[in-house]
Amino acid sequence: MIDTLISNKEQIVNDSKQFSLFSWSAQASLNPIAIERAEGVYLYDYDGNKIIDFSSGLISVNIGHGDQRVTAAVVDQMQKVSFVTPTCTTEIRAKLAKKLAEICPGDLNKAFFTLCGTSSVDNAIKLARLYSGRHKIIGRYRAFHGGSIGGMSVGGDPRKLANDSQQMTNAVLLDDPYYFFGMKNLDDETKLNLSLEYVERVIHFEGKTNIAAFIFEGESGSSGCLHYPKGYLKGVKALCEKYGILFIADEVMSGFCRTGKWFGFENHGIIPDMVCMAKGLTSSYLPLGCLMVSDKIAEKFDNTPMMIGLTYNAHPVAMAAALAVINIYESDNLLENTKKMSAYLESKIEEMRSKHPSMGAFRNTGLLGCLDVLKNKTTGELIAPYNATGDDLKITNIIGAKLRELGLYTFVRWGYIFIAPPLIINEEQIDEGLAIISEALSIADEHLVY
């Protein structure tokens, strides 16, 4: 039996590499993990290894793997109707849209269903331009809004650089407030005021009547879980209101209980005009995105055609998965578990510091977290710089390989180890994952410069 599984694994890996392409990767050097099944916070490969998933897939499998309540809901929906043209409607569409309106604050009451996160972002851009009659979209350099041309253009993640020649026009990017030259030794209030003055200057430089929207992540994700200074998002939202600019919150990664709130923006006391959703919406069991829109924006299209659309708008089967997942967030009290496990995780990370001098800052909001791994203890330099390539990633790659060898899957990028497990995780499983990370950090300790 074991020989058969190993043979199957080799065939799966070989055929996958021969007949498919993998994202963001040089294909020849890939060594993908062949997963046979997944349950709870664990993945199981064809070699019989049990792998703890410490980044919820791509920070998306919020309810954990293999919850058969979702399977049952999907099967039930498929037995009724699997697809209708988007000009028709279904019971599941009505239920899910109503439920999303209930959990969203303010007047975010209208759901436009998409296929994924980046298609939610693309349609938010289109809708902002249609609604406002303006054309510019302002985002951040250290943000990621998906792999489409629109999504890549309004963020600055370096994965877009190979596609620079194809970028969408009229996208403007801001530096983050914590990187401004000369602000390091200022007090927090002064830094906040100067940061917001910079944002307002950009608004004037770009033409206040040309800017349709700002797009910000509710909480930073793949750029390193970088925290907004207290009051920053509220200040940006106030500037948007001052100049009649829409505010789009990208909650694809930070949404659905991940940060201890339904949405990351709720940690900042604001209500956006639009919210982009995906990932945790279905816990990635099926592809589905959603763009929640305020009543104010929706009213614009009561008697004017809303010229956005896609074939899989309001796909019944994916929506059945989404409603089942939202019910699980509520019935299993995952908001409370996220808060509880977040506090426990923070305490255990602090305990590890006495053992590992290579540990830098740990930034988290709920169970969306990221650990800095240091190269230089004195300067705070990370083991790999932002947008590192080639030899600069040598130690990072060794650490990542060690984590995989020891049975932990997570997102390791540049000088960061991401810690964002499924929201169902318990204390024992956090201890298990951190013990593996601790062992891998010994590699960084050996290379640390003082």
Automatic annotation (TrEMBL):
Q: Which UniProt keywords apply?
A: Aminotransferase, Pyridoxal phosphate, Transferase
**PROSITE patterns in the cross-refs:** AA_TRANSFER_CLASS_3 (PS00600)
A molecular function (GO) term: transaminase activity
The cofactors named for this UniProt entry are: pyridoxal 5'-phosphate
Do you know which InterPro entries this protein is assigned to? Aminotrans_3, Aminotrans_3_PPA_site, PyrdxlP-dep_Trfase, PyrdxlP-dep_Trfase_major, PyrdxlP-dep_Trfase_small
Keyword Lyase appears in the UniProt entry: no
> Pfam families given for it?
Aminotran_3
Write out the similarity annotation.
Belongs to the class-III pyridoxal-phosphate-dependent aminotransferase family.
What's the protein here called? Aminotransferase class III-fold pyridoxal phosphate-dependent enzyme
Organism in which the protein naturally occurs: Flavobacterium myungsuense
